[in-house]
Design brief:
Helices cover 36% and strands 18% of the residues. By secondary structure, it is of the alpha+beta class. A hairpin with a 2-residue loop joins strand 13 and strand 14. The structure holds 2-(butylsulfanyl)adenosine (IVH). 2-(butylsulfanyl)adenosine binds next to strand 3, strand 8 and strand 11.
Length: 692
């Protein structure tokens, strides 16, 4: 490769890595695996070593990824006292041996290491003052992080107040920092995703994204509900009597911090390798996600003399496990049709043990992926289970391909109703257009209508199956004409369940308008968009009659959603269903209360206002209340924000600063409540999930 070719490739790699960094850290929606990402970074590193003149200060090899969301000013940002670095990493034992040799050369003493698990969550930096949790910052860009203290206080394993130590133990210092990883245990992750799927929301890809997304929620109550967990692994303090990382962790354990017991002091490479071998397989039994082992020099003085690069310490490295893979035979392919008509190919596999569970089925994504990997029936395929719940087919063992295989022919017709499938050139998936005659679409729409965040009607898949197969419910409006006697006669459906079902149907007549709007299943209109549409248009008739330009030009909606809304109301059968729902007394417009309530962005938050604003005091108060917030007069520990205009009261400002209460100005406030959108914001069409 010559200099100009290298320059082009380096620039391509930088752009790609920056883009993936944003998807990973800010959007919590990675598009490629960690391994693929590390390979891009490694290629860039190699090229930069060959052509050092191409290294720039902002190269991703010189900086750490940032989790600070530029579009959200919901969290106050504070600088880190010590930069939050990343770790160098490797997938090979040889590179690990080089790491050890490099360190061994710098000292004539034996080097001792601590091996510990590399937890796959989101990094957190906790500051304690006088034994009290003072502040919790995310990694941010490594230099400045988001203040998520209010949310971290709701994580049970993190102490907010340290107990005094018993005699003979090393006391905690007056002020110190301790860092670690916030995690979502697999069990909470499964529960959360099940709920999301039930509500037609996009599930989180893996527990790491779920933990990072949860930590940045505005509602601390919701954070608590999601049961996050934490392991701490880095104490930053100069404490007499603590000279090694091992001692620091032991002391932190005594002070009440969650420190993983899966650590080992290793005196040579063999002992390190033993630890790696053990956890490469054993980690699958843990209740939280891990993606490797971190190997740290134990002795603080050696750590100090090794120092660090701009990006990572020289005294530690991460050995990453490859995502668990298994090879097995592809027996057949099923095609599942979801409520929106999207078709998902699913592989039926020769059962194989992977990460502690037997895998029989795995996702094949879409027709393009099958073609890309040239996956054929009878092939030996590789299945992988990253942090994700649903395993996926990631490739083919071409050497093991039997002679008689033929290229896979994707279906052309719906497996459920026989209709010719369609494919939007911009969508990777095939769709069945037979909205009104394709059973899984009809049943899926009824289930969606009844789901918890929509109309909250009791029942579920089994009930819908019975009601549909007996011809009792063909669309959601039939639910309001159900005959109790016929219901009682259903299999496994006694008096009690009939009562409860009828009660929940009755209660559904008074859900807020935005939930009804979400329930009727306009493609791409998820919960958030439904809320926006409800408050913007006020009624279903207004939305239906809105001039096309009003929809297409609303920056919050975007083209995909607006054309979906227009299409929806053009369907005569939808209009008939809606008229029946109107006759059943469902909420076709916002109540007076709802119209006053613009959003729940400040739900339960307490604000103190001080100073002059561009609106009057009374108007500001109304605005806060319209977003679910409450205005109170005095600053106390309970206050969430001090909203400071021009010339705020100095006493209030001082007290807020002392109590570490975020002080926001008028523009921050308007952005926080969505009154002014961050520049260039377009609501993403909310992804529909297929029933898998
Ligand atoms: S030590 C200065 N120990 O992995 C070094 N990090 O990919 C501080 N991580 O930024 C980090 N488990 O967020 C350390 N046992 C462990 C870890 C760990 C997970 C994370 C951490 C770090 C990232 C690097």
């Amino acid at each position: 490769m010559n200099r100009s070719q290298a320059a082009i490739r380096v620039s391509e790699l930088k752009n790609a890595i920056n883009e993936h960094n944003k998807k990973y850290y800010v959007l919590n929606a990675p598009a490629i695996s960690d391994f693929e990402f590390d390979m891009l970074l490694q290629e860039l590193n190699t090229l930069e070593r060959m052509f050092p003149h191409l290294i720039t200060e902002d190269s991703p090899t010189q900086t750490v990824g940032s989790d600070i969301s530029t579009e959200s000013r919901a969290f106050r940002q504070y600088p880190h006292k010590n930069p939050m670095l990343s770790l160098s990493n490797t997938y090979s034992r040889e590179a690990l041996a080089e790491f050890h040799n490099r360190i061994a050369k710098t000292t004539d003493r034996d080097v001792e290491y601590v091996c510990e698990l590399k937890f796959d969550g989101t990094a957190i930096c906790l500051t304690y003052k006088n034994g009290q949790l003072f502040r919790a910052l995310t990694r941010g860009d490594g230099t400045v992080g988001d203040d998520v203290t209010r949310n971290v206080e709701r994580i049970k394993s993190i102490p907010t107040q340290l107990s005094p130590v018993s005699s003979g133990q090393i006391p905690w210092p007056h002020e110190f920092e301790i860092r670690g990883e916030i995690l979502m245990p697999f069990s909470s992750f499964r529960e959360l995703n099940a709920l999301k799927e039930e509500n037609g929301e996009t599930p989180f890809a893996n527990p790491r994204n779920a933990a990072a997304g949860t930590l940045k929620l505005l509602s601390a109550d919701e954070v608590e509900r999601r049961s996050l967990d934490c392991f701490l692994y880095h104490l930053i303090a100069d404490i007499p009597g603590i000279d090694t990382h091992w001692q620091a962790m032991e002391a932190a354990l005594q002070w009440g911090f969650p420190i993983s017991k899966h650590r080992k002091l290793c005196r040579d490479l063999d002992q390190i390798n033993e630890f790696l071998d053990h956890w490469d397989t054993e980690r699958t039994g843990l209740r939280v996600a891990t993606d490797g082992v971190v190997i740290k020099v134990n002795d603080f003085s050696l750590q100090r003399s090794l120092g660090m690069t701009a990006k990572s310490p020289r005294w530690a490295t991460a050995y990453k496990f490859k995502a668990q893979q298994a090879a097995t035979r592809l027996l057949s392919v099923d095609f599942q049709v979801g409520r929106t008509g999207a078709v998902t190919p699913v592989a039926n596999l020769q059962p194989v043990l992977l990460s502690g569970t037997t895998v029989k089925r795995a996702s094949l994504h879409n027709a393009d992926q099958i073609a890309l990997h040239d996956i054929r029936l009878g092939d030996t395929v590789f299945v992988e289970k990253g942090g994700e719940i649903i395993p996926k087919v990631v490739g083919v063992d071409l050497e093991a391909r039997p002679e008689d295989t033929v290229p896979f022919r994707y279906i052309t017709h719906c497996p459920e109703c026989g209709t010719l499938l369609e494919r939007d050139p911009e969508e990777a998936k095939h769709f069945c257009p037979n909205r009104w005659g394709c059973p899984p679409q009809i049943k899926g729409r009824i289930e969606h209508f009844m789901s918890r965040k929509a109309m909250n009607i009791l029942g579920g898949e089994a009930l819908v199956e019975q009601l549909y197969s007996k011809g009792m419910v063909k669309d959601p409006s039939d639910l309001y004409d159900l005959n109790p006697d016929v219901l009682r006669s259903l299999d496994n459906w006694g008096d009690r369940s009939t009562e409860n079902l009828l009660k929940s149907i009755e209660a559904s007549r008074s859900v807020p308008f935005h939930r009804f709007l979400y329930a009727i299943g306009i493609p791409y209109v998820g919960e958030t968009t439904a809320k926006y549409l409800a408050s913007h248009f006020g009624s279903l008739d207004n939305l239906r009659n809105a001039p096309e330009e009003e929809l297409t030009q609303a920056p919050e909606i975007g083209e995909k959603i607006s054309s979906s809304i227009i299409q929806y109301f053009r369907d005569q059968r939808i209009l008939i269903m809606l008229e029946r729902l109107r006759a059943a007394g469902l909420p076709f417009s916002q109540s007076a209360d709802e119209s006053a309530r613009v959003s729940d962005k400040l739900g339960g938050k307490q604000l103190v206002i001080s100073g002059n604003f561009s609106h009057s005091r009374e108007e500001m108060k109304k605005l806060i209340e319209s977003h679910g917030g409450k205005v109170i007069s005095a600053i106390s520990g309970q206050v969430d924000y001090l909203l400071a205009g021009e010339k705020p009261g100095p006493a209030k400002l001082q007290k807020a600063t002392k109590l570490n209460i975020p002080v926001i100005n008028e523009a921050d406030f308007l952005r926080l409540t969505g009154e002014i959108p961050p520049e260039g914001t377009v609501f993403e069409a909310e992804q529909q999930t297929t029933l898998f």
